[in-house]
Amino acid sequence: MLSNLLELYLHDLSEIFPVEVGPDGRFGYDWLSLYWSQPERRFAFLIRVGTRAAGFALITRGSPATDDPEDLDVAEFFVLRGYRRSGVGRRAAFLLWDRLPGSWVVRVSEANRAGLPFWRSTVHEYTKGGFVEAQRPGTPNGWRVFRFRTTDG
Ligand SMILES: CC(C)(COP(=O)(O)OP(=O)(O)OC[C@H]1O[C@@H](n2cnc3c(N)ncnc32)[C@H](O)[C@@H]1OP(=O)(O)O)[C@@H](O)C(=O)NCCC(=O)NCCS
Fold it and tell me: Where are the beta strands (DSSP E) in 5-129?
């Protein structure tokens, strides 16, 4: 199921990143099996609305944007189009941060017209403003990196 949902996600992201389908018509995602072979460092979550799949979140320990190998990084995050703008992504992110306490890193391309306002407002609301936002260079578009801590109590 995740492999199929990843195709829809990658198709959305192909508007802003140069990802291409292979000869089988699929984008493919080489890292998915690592979420089962490295269960201490990678966490895969399905987002459901009722009994239906509505998206997913893939989380890694260690982030390309920071040096601490224990940082929790939102590697991929997706809500199916039919469920968007109804608070599903926000609720899923809140559950995620409640579930895995620690130092979080959220990276988003400045070209991601839904993702940037989504993360800024969701992180702001969850942390009540207790986060740091930084800019990182990138070609053709820069990145925004949000950092904050969550606790288990
Ligand atoms: C980004 C994404 C996860 C948002 O999911 P969602 O379930 O639609 O988000 P929510 O309904 O919980 O939105 C919460 C808030 O984020 C902001 N937001 C979400 N989508 C937005 C958009 N398209 N434009 C502007 N603001 C947006 C709004 O402030 C929204 O609150 P509001 O609807 O009350 O105004 C979804 O659009 C998606 O999967 N996009 C494709 C994949 C992607 O870009 N993932 C992020 C990679 S970093």
Answer: 42-49, 52-61, 72-79, 102-109
Structural domain including 102 reads: 2-150
Residue nearest ligand 1's atom 5 by CA: 89
Can you read off the two tokens belonging to residue 105? 């890193």
Read off the tokens for 111. 């070209």
CA of 60 to the centre of ligand 1 (A): 21
CATH code for the domain of 132? 3.40.630.30
Whether 118 lines ligand 1, by a CB cut-off of 6 Å, is yes
Residue 37 has pLDDT above 70, yes or no: yes
- Mean pLDDT, range 83-103, rounded to an integer: 97
Query: How many domains in the chain?
Result: 1
pTM above 0.70, yes or no: yes
115 lines ligand 1 (CB under 6 A): yes
Counting residues of the chain whose pLDDT is more than 90, the rounded percentage is 96
